[in-house]
Request: fold
Amino acid sequence: MTDTPRNQQQEGELATGREEPAVRVVDVTMDFAGGVRALEDVSFALPKGELTSIIGPSGCGKTTTLKIIAGLIQPTSGDVLVDGSSVMGPGPERAMVFQDFALMPWATVLRNAAFGLELRGVPRREREATAREYIAKMNLTGFEDSYPHQLSGGMRQRVGLARALAVDADILLMDEPFASVDEQIRRKFQEDLLELLSGENKTVIFVTHSIEEAVYVSDQVVIMSRGPGRVSNVVRPGIDREGGSDQIRRSPEYLDWVERIWVELRDYLEQ
Reply:
């Protein structure tokens, strides 16, 4: 890959007058019990209102990085700044969508979608009205009284996304949110996600194993090397999205970025 690594370049640009990023990850290292180093000196920034994907080989620390940004675990060293303030734990400005949906099996779709608001003490009538709004946006109207076991995997994931959006957090953290659905549904979810986010002005960090998905949904892609995870490159595909999904996926620009990222990741797999 011919690009100059962008993480250092990006930090320099931000320091010379560009808008302060929503999230800044600074020299994060993470050691687990037994001396296992998952991350080493990881640094990158998330521009406000953009979707950034993290992609890399299995075991490179993608999900660990996401959990550190979420405040679910503390790094061994380094810092994560949200709007300039160090992350010390979970906060209301961040919401997470898990790969395994993390729904309460005993609760209805409506209760699950409203649960984040319930934890924040929002009155029942208000939180249910907000939850119904996002249930509708997720095309789940009519399933408000259904339980998770009555839904398909794709529908359960939509409930998880409705719950995350309902709390109106500025930063949305998504851990391989479409990995458990088939390819047809996955492509539809990608299209729906971009359409939904176009009116939300959220900063999104999106962990994925799929190069095609990363290029399709992202303003920025953080490429990580194999463990201990490091940032090897930060790129901005700049895909023209005016022509619709089919045209994007067939465009030389899209296909070229998929191939360029694959070539870099393939080098790590061969090491």
